[in-house]
Amino acid sequence: TFTRLQYTSGDWDVDQRMPANLLHSLVEYTTIEVDPRERVVPLASADVFDARFGYIAGHRLVQFTGAERANFERFVRGGGFVLADDCNHDIDGLFARSFESQMAAIFGPDALRKIPNNHELYRAVFPFSDGPPTTGLELNGWGDDLVHDYLKAIEIDGRIAVLYSNKDYGCEWDYDFRNKRFLAEDNTKFGVNIVMYAMTA
User: What is the predicted pLDDT for the residue at 137?
Assistant: First the structure.
């Protein structure tokens, strides 16, 4: 089940077509059982703990309430996986600075670290020998206009528990899945890797 984490401080409801697109890819490339509908759950709700895979994204401020912060930490430490995606695709925008600050406050100032480009995440299903694939959005002059050649993560007990991207994968995959036929290469394949890693690590 693709669970979007709704938080009170920012614009959590971005990339509206991305979940259906990624879920379609999971059906196409894997044999895991998939709920075809995205599930939106308030981060402050106990319903969070029914999930295994959570998605959080936005452009604006991330400032968790006490309940949101407690649930985020409990979810992650209890075996949940969160994909956090900065829709500004930069390293000094409001989402980036505030989300990283929240992670430091919860897990410690050094918890969020770059992961090596030979991490098993990059070969979970499809091989990405150069690390995280570049998005077209990184090259469009908006944001910091840099290609980020790494992702960051918080690891707990040897597994990635929070995967953090400044690459704006959510917007990259925010299109009707039927339009994949126009692509030379399906750019959601890395999303399949992320989900399969989350479900098996």
Answer: 81
